[in-house]
Amino acid sequence: MHSAQELVSQIEALTSLPTVYERVREQLESPDGSVFEVARLVSADPALTARLLRLVNSAMYGYRGEIDNVVRAVQILGLQQVHDLVLAMSLHAVFAGIRPAQLDMNRFWRESVLCALASHAIAQRTGAVAAERSFVMGLLADIGHLVLFQTAPELAAEARTIAGQGGEPLHLVERRIVGCDFAEVGATLMDQWRVPRAFAEAIGAQTLPRLGGEHAADAAALNLASHIVAADRIGESSEQVGARIDQTVWDLLELDAECIAAVREEAELNLAAYLSLFFPSAPRRVARDL
Hints:
This is Histidine kinase. The protein has helices at residues 4-12, 19-29, 35-43, 46-56, 70-94, 105-126, 131-140, 143-151, 153-166, 170-177, 182-193, 197-204, 216-234, 238-244, 247-253, 260-278, 283-287.
């Protein structure tokens, strides 16, 4: 049996966050954090600059080509959102050398982006002030599975097989077989990365959102988004998804099952574009798995 801390310590020995992210985080945490210094840090990486400008001019933000320089982008987005986006754009590089034998990485990143888009669409419907953060949370929501399949592959695969055959929720099987579940592992990794506490709390509570404290609504959005991703994987209808969602999730979001079809349509419509934005090194190969 393994603890989340043990597994995360193994993955941390193989990965590290990029220096640009670490420096942006320092600016966010500093009382003297500067928009101009963050813009300078981002501008030093031409690829990151291009992707940030593409994103701020995308449908998610709605500026449609009006923002043409990093300083303006950082001024509009603010330090917190730029921090979150640099973290999201770092994921592919962070895990580039990790390819678990029993996990299809193309499908994993495709489903992570789909979860991100669904989370964002759900947050928008709830009227959340920072709906864009829900996108990044969704992108990170399943990262615990990547850790599990890299550090305890046989146990992770066994848990997935048992859950698939018996219909038991995967996170419960993981706790029994591995000793911890993907949500706990993901939250532990967020803590180790020292990202804002909201990420760990929402990701850690996604399987039981009412335990998410002040971030329970974020956790509920991740819960619903993960069900939408699962439905996409196995070909379920929106009505079938709705029937599986706990009433607590609807209460926290102040939504109902009528929203599922629209959320799925919006997420699937934007999937290819955001795959190429966040995972530019292999967009065509990933897209062929759609």
